[in-house]
Amino acid sequence: MPAKILLVAAARPNFMKIAPLWRALASRPDTFEPLLVHTGQHYDHNMSDVFFADLGLPRPHLHLGVGSGSHAEQTAGVMVKFEQVCLDEKPACVVVVGDVNATMACTIAAKKLLVDVAHVEAGLRSGDRTMPEETNRILTDSIADLLLTPSPDADVNLRGEGVAEERIALVGNIMIDSLVHALDRVKNRACHDRFGLGAREYGLVTLHRPANVDDPELLRRLFAGLASLDYPLIFPVHPRTRKVMENCGLADLFDAGGDRRLTDPLGYDDFLNLTMNARFVLTDSGGIQEETTYLGIPCLTMRPNTERPVTVTDGTNELITLETMADRVKVVLAGNWKTGKVPDLWDGATAERIADVLAGRYA
Ligand code: UD1
Question: What are the pLDDT digits (tens) for 261-274?
Answer without folding.
Answer: 999 999 999 999 99
